[in-house]
Specification:
Distance between the termini: 28 Å
Order of helices and strands: HHHHEEEEEE
Structural class: alpha+beta
Helix content: 25-40%
Shape: globular
Number of strands: 6
Strand content: 25-35%
Radius of gyration: 16 Å
Low-confidence stretches: 3-30
Mean pLDDT: 79
Largest sheet: 4 strands, antiparallel
Length: 154
């Protein structure tokens, strides 16, 4: 896991140095979306580093965090559910957290059209039991982005 994380970091640094946008795929190539990158990037952007009393370190306002997450999504998928703004600071709400797709386990990628895919995984953990996550990834303005996330306990 540490090796995979280090490889991912090196890959992202190379993309940044090359001036590329990691989630942009040329529509003419008709490639599938970078599923694992988008899922992991979404998770990284939603889970923020916190200080004491659950105060978010990088952002002071929900709107700032929403803009950060919206670089890879179409709308606020998680901020209002997991964060609150008070006294000019942003705080994470102590909660059980979201259900995620585990990219280290099998998941299904279904093409709904040339520019729209559904990613589905049924998973199980001690907190949620068995659950299913469905993510829609869609090409918009020449970039693959997450447009919907649906979760349900089975």
């Amino acid at each position: 896991e540490i090796i995979l994380r280090n490889i991912t970091i090196i890959f992202l640094i190379i993309l940044l140095l090359a001036g590329c946008s990691a989630n942009t795929v040329n529509k003419e190539t008709k490639e599938e979306p970078p599923v694992e990158f988008l899922i992991e990037e979404f998770r990284t952007r939603v889970i923020q580093e916190i200080g004491k009393n659950y105060e978010v370190k990088e952002f002071d306002k929900k709107e700032e965090l929403v803009r950060h997450i919206n670089e890879i999504t179409t709308r606020d998928i998680a901020v209002n559910k997991y964060y609150e703004e008070k006294n000019n600071n942003l705080y994470i709400l102590p909660t059980e957290g979201p259900m995620w797709i585990n990219t280290n386990k099998d998941y299904q990628v279904e093409s709904l059209s040339k520019e729209k895919y559904r990613i589905t995984q049924t998973n199980k953990n001690q907190l949620w039991g068995e659950y299913t996550v469905k993510i829609i990834i869609q090409m918009q303005e020449n970039s693959w982005i997450i447009t919907a996330i649906d979760t349900k306990s089975n």
